[in-house]
Amino acid sequence: MSMITDLPVSMSSTTLAASPNITSQLFGSGLIGLREGLEAAIVVSILVAFLVKSDRRDALRWVWLGVGAAIALTLTVFLVIQFGENTITGLAAEAIAGVASLIAVVIVTTMVLWMRRAAAGMSGELRNDMAQALETGPLAVALLAFFAVGREGVEPPCSWSGTPRRRRTGRWSDSSSAC
């Protein structure tokens, strides 16, 4: 007798047993969110501390405007991903996942290259960027905060979209990352 035919377990139940449970998914997703939130908080702290120490409290509102816009962007990306994953099927879903994966590669690659260059002097670089933004005007201050925080905020929804989920069929599927 063949060993494969002797097994009483079907393939779908084997896949279910080997799949991650909801607790490990929530824990992993929570850690990603916590890490990115802490990184964003560090960036905002550096910007705010620079403004306070240089007695430019008037520019704080522009930093908070940029932070608020980055949070809105993060929520929008999350909702678009969720809407897309739950409503688009077939070839369109495959095409969107493919394009989104390419975008993710570009974002991650540029972030790795940027971090490699800027990790040692990130605080100093942010301070220099803020000094230049203050000379340029309030919109530059808001955009600096927006991009510094938005970069951290968009990553968690993209990471979360690539986690396996139990579909209505009862099977686990590994959805492609949407960012």
UniProtKB/TrEMBL annotation:
The chain crosses the membrane at residues 26-50, 62-83, 95-114. One of its GO terms (molecular function) is ferrous iron transmembrane transporter activity. Its main location: membrane. Keywords: Membrane, Transmembrane, Transmembrane helix. Residues 158-179 are annotated as: Disordered. It is found in: Membrane. InterPro entries: FTR1/Fip1/EfeU. One of its GO terms (cellular component) is high-affinity iron permease complex. This is Ferrous iron permease EfeU. It comes from Mycolicibacterium chlorophenolicum.
